[in-house]
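Q: Hi! First time doing this. I have a protein sequence and I read that you can turn it into a structure. Is that right? Here it is:
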Amino acid sequence: MSTELAETGNLQRLLEQVGAGLDSYLTFEHPDAMHPGQRWRQFLDIPLPELGVGIEQVTRDLIEQVIPNGSPVPRPGFSSFITTGATSAAILAATAANVASPQRYMHTAFNFLEELSLQWLAQMFGLGPMLGVYSSGGSVANLIALGGARQSAFEKINHDPASSGVNRAVGIYASAECHHTIQRSAGVLGVGRSAVRLIKCDAGGRMRVDSLAKTLAEDKAAGILPMAIVANAGSTNTGAIDPLQALGEIAQENGIWFHVDGAYGLPGILDEEVKPQFKGLDLADSVIVDPHKWLGAAVGVAATFVRDRQLLYRAFTQEPADYLEGSVEQNQVAAQVEHSLDDLGIPYFDFGAELSSPSRGVVVWALIREIGVAGLRQRVKRHNAMARRLALLVHEHPNLEMLAEPTLSICCFRYTSPKIADLDRFNQRLHRRLVRENIYMPSTTRVQGKLALRPCYIGARAEPDQVDGLLEAVLRIGAELEPGR
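A: Yes, that's right. Below is the predicted 3D structure, encoded as structure tokens:
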């Protein structure tokens, strides 16, 4: 018997050991991976092994060398990227899927939960009858949505871009605060990054409707085919929500695909104080959201929703492969399915860019099943309230300045003093000191040209006391760095 087969039956014991190592990691008592004196790199950096050491040693290596030197992202005080450490439900579901359903296809419980969880997300966020498909993240989710937009725009002029390529210049109209994956999607889809028209924003970071109308009129006169209007439902920079109703109405009046990028911010609709700003979401032709952001999944789970999933089929369908379709008996009536390999189930591989794909729906199902909509709403409201409270405290302190009022769970501010000649450079130094303390770790960004400290609260482990701790640390470090101190 091979070594691999001999290990069958050990999963429970080995996972218990790894689980104990992960529980220890989640106490966050270990130093950062790059802390002086850490020797994991010397241990791990070995030549390609000719002979293996066995699963027991691999497990020890994971527990002793790899896990303790992981990322700071799951820490309660990490508020830099809009990704977070997975919750326990997500970890358990992903582990189960890795073993029991390596692919999301075929008639299995995992395939069933793929569609059910998408329906749950659409219902939770008020997306009506939209249908979805999972992908690896917002980059691919936006690509899929804009692939549908490209298909729609060209089909209106009796051309199939997926089959024959694009045959004229197009315009994609997005906020100047749009995520940079919009430009990348345009490049990958063959319409060109220069097709993205970055529309001016107001002082709150929201797309200006008058600037959009002006650019649309100019492009129409130049014979440019309008492909999509892209709105932010929570920008990654400041959390701003574009005027969805006005933008959606312009899209409808001009017959243009209306896409809403809610990768980060869409769960904000669960907060009653913010929900009115999502008015107009019902006008969207496509919407994306990343459960690996605010919902607590591990990185690698995003969803694209569209009104007409057949458009995605025409945009992304692949040519048949004998080995793939030949492994099943396609188009079985549900009542006649007697084996999970009688049919591939819903053909998600024809609705997006991935053929091989993990079962992501079970992770989203587990997250919602564990705490329900009420639990997720409570988390979103807690995080939004943290950003608002931080803003209030910033306004009250003479050495702090607000640079962007919170809309969702992002607060942009900076340390200031008459003694500081270069506030951008000073706050950059303050930020690096703050991060290296390894407790409170926001990112920086620029708001109207000014460098800001930018905490974004989305992690399930982020609690209100993080606000006070961050503020105390900023004021302490700022005072220590001030000239003449």
